[in-house]
Amino acid sequence: MLAFTIRRIIGMFAVLFAVSVLVFIVFVLVPGGDPAERMAGKNPSQQNIVNIRKKWGFDRPIYVQYVRMMQKAGNGFLPGKHGEYDILRSFDTRTDVAAEIKKGIPATFSLCIGAGVIWLFFGILVGVLSAITAGRWSDRLITGFALVGVSMPVAWLAIVLRYFLAEKPNNPVFPDGGYVGLTTDPVQWANHLIMPWFVLSVIFIGFYGRVLRSNMLDAMNEDYVRTAKAKGLSPRRVLLKHVLRNSMIPIVSLFGLDFAAVLGGGAILTETVFELRGVGWYAAQSVGNLDLPPIMGVTLYGAFFIVVFSAIVDFIYVFLDPRIRPA
Amino acid sequence: MAEHAVDPSLDTPALLAAEEHEVAIVGRSPWYLAWRRLRRNYVALVAFAVFCLIVLACAFAPVYAHHVAHTGPNDTHVAETVKVGGKEKVVIGGGAVYDPKTNTFDTSKSIIVLGPTWWHAHGRFVLGADNLGRDAAVRMLYGGRNSLIIGIGSAFICSVIAVILALLAGYYGGWVDWVISRFFDLIWAFPVLLLAIALGSALSVNGFHHFGIHIEPGSLWIPVLVISYVLIPYIGRPVRGQVLSLRQKEFVEAAVGQGAGPIRIMFSDLLPNVASTILVFFTLIVATDILTEAGLSYLGAGVRLPDASWGNLIASGQQQIHTAPWLAVAPGIAIVLTVLSLNIFGDGLRDALDPRAKVRIEH
Lengths: 327, 363
Fold this sequence. Notes:
The complex is a heterodimer of chains A (327) and B (363). Chain A has 327 residues and is mainly α. Chain A contains 13 helices and no strands. Chain A is globular and about 85 Å long. The mean pLDDT of chain A is 80. Chain B starts with a helix and ends with a helix. The model of chain B is unreliable at 1-6 and 357-363 (pLDDT under 50).
């Protein structure tokens, strides 16, 4: 177990390193050209460009730039005072990327934790209900809805809901956009988040329901289920303890990764449409004027969550399924 | 039955029996059996027909634009009037509204665009006009063309790359497998949309000018390549797993024994065995690609204006949602119909190609 833990943690750092190199390639090497010229604006003086190049370190060798870039990205998250050029800054507004990400975390976490609970609960409900009534009309109805759920463009669903439920001037059902802190007013917090929670959950509910349904139908044909039935266990017990428990293993790993992805800014569309000023919203704001550092910061931040969560999922796996437990 | 004519020593009982009764035994390939199962799945066939209709409609967008709507996707008709059912109507009405409180002109919400005319204007502005006086129906069709090109094109590129990588990894194993699997892990380590936006905006700065490949910013190749890249592991991982288990089968050993080279084993022995999986994944990935394109273009990192795509039509429709909600609603419905039909057909295809699934449903 110790060897497994050590190996997994080393693997995690290796992936993080690879992720940071890929992000550096995407943001620094792929665009090419001279970022200093882009930052200097229209009609810059030559001296201005040279100054920017020197201050931001664009004249240094690639590997030095890489190390500096990662130091900058990390520095912003560490406490303490930092010099002007020691942290990752937006090309456009020169604001601190890490500080902006930190500012977005409460909204993003509120959105994702709420939505995560909802989609896990309803995803399992949809999967179980359609699996135990497989082939009947209720199954057809539920799987039909699940299929429509996974076929909807998130942004469109959000816009349509917002228009019909919040933006209508006469009696809006829900408040329109914005975010109220949980500590400020818990009721308004939830009220503002109901629509975003729903929108973010829909696609996952459909997806998890479909995966769980087919897993459960597979499991129902397994020998151990026949044995359990033959032993005289109640159908409910067979379903919960034997079928569902084994079918949940892939769901756990799916949930771990999806949850990490939305925590890491993957809920961009939901956050953007509802103007929830979260991490994903911050990245989306920078797309319009191709301001790369904020997108880069959020991408690194998101990948960090996924890599760490996938390590956690592996540990949960080992705990759930004794067969994969290393000797 | 050509074989026994060539080699009379292969007289199996079945062949002898066939000769005796002069009844030819018809060989049935797995593909034929799958087709027979699919043929009875009317829901899947209807879904496929719907998808084909949408593709056809979008493919004939220029014909519609020239002969029915008499306008192009980027032609503006700001100061024009249209005869709708005998009445002259302006394409864009209203104007800036003065707000004395803030001493400003509100120009965003006050424009009143022509609503859907259906067929009352003889094919012009069937779905109304957008805020620049362009024909929304024409833009929908052209946008659909871009969305479908991106969806199908990137699914194709993605499948080809993923399958080649999966075959290499599964066939060679060892360090080749290790490197390719880590490559999949690396892409897997990013939230899909975030990586797509990162790549899309990084490529939009100056385009791509490395390794002798030149892609200009604003090119349709950018969303195609970005989306195909971020979804590689979704096909690559499961196919690699299948190849890995097929690699242990006797027929591969037999091929090796006959002196077949790696390329031949990979492409003429292993590939046909994973073809049904790839086909199902391809259908479902086209659906995922269309959704990803919609998200990417909505955020402005995919198809760039003035070119239309269903994604950026939703984005520009959002600005007009109070006065002309159909501008945002219509492209969304087109996406839902396309993706839903692909998903239903993909499910049907999987049930047909994997008979075990059929047994499961009847159970």
